Amino acid sequence: MTQPLPPLIGSPLPAEEARALARHDGLRERVLAYVTRGTGALLVFEHTPEDPDAGVQVPAGGLEPGETPEQAALRETWEETGLSLSGPVHLGSFPWSKGKLAEVWHFFHLSVPTTTPDAWAHRVTHGEDDAGLTFLCRFAPFHACGLTPGDGYDAALPNLTRHPHLFPMELSHD
Predict the structure, then answer these.
(1) Which three-class secondary structure string do you get for the chain?
(2) Which burial class, exposed, middle or buried, applies to 136 when counting CB atoms under 10 A from its CB (0-12, 13-18, 19+)?
(3) Which pTM does this prediction carry?
(4) By the 8 A CB rule, do 147 and 57 touch?
């Protein structure tokens, strides 16, 4: 079973400040994408039964050499879901550490048309660690999306709800 990740550290940073921190400290950069449909659904995915301990996730992964966080958010979303999107909106970046491992996590928002299916299976064809895996993608109610507790994937959800032009509805955090 995978171990939960520790919480992200402190308040969100602007993208350039976070990138400067990563460069200065030699930290790996990682992106996470919150993909929404309409005003109440968040895209999540799970692995097929071959990897049941991976939990409920959002598209995420590391930056490739020469790639910006925005480009990485689009690439990771495409690789892990098959959705080709544009216009990522930066929600915040956080330093993250566990023991001697330290990274900077950049969170983005992407939206899809309301005609996007409720659920689908996507076989990953790219990516060093994920190629060949099948992800079971689905839109879940934002307030009950089921992201695995302790993984840190939910860290910037409050930032998403503070952008009414991105997600125009009153959300409950029950």
Answers:
(1) CCCCCCCCCCCCECHHHHHHHHHHHCCEEEEEEEEEECCCEEEEEEECCCCHHHCCECCEEECCCCCCHHHHHHHHHHHHHCCCCCCCEEEEEEEEEECCEEEEEEEEEEEECCCCCCEEEEECCCCCCCCCCEEEEEEEEHHHCCCCCCCCCCCCHHHHHCCCCCCCCCCCCC
(2) middle
(3) 0.85
(4) yes
pLDDT of residue 55: 84
pLDDT in tens, 95-111: 887 777 889 999 999 99
> Do the beta carbons of residue 140 and residue 154 sit within 8 Å?
no
Work out whether strand 89-98 and strand 134-141 pair parallel, antiparallel, or are unpaired: unpaired
CA pair distance 126, 133, nearest whole angstrom: 10
Structure tokens, 83: 């959705």
For the chain, what is the largest distance between any 2 Cα atoms, rounded to a whole number of angstroms?
44
pLDDT of residue 169: 44
Going by C-beta distance under 8 Å and a sequence separation of 6 or more, which residues neighbour residue 121? 48, 134, 135, 136, 137
Residues of the chain with pLDDT under 70: 1-11, 163-174
CA geometry: angle 112, 161, 147, nearest 5 deg: 70
Name residue, tokens 């990563």: 22
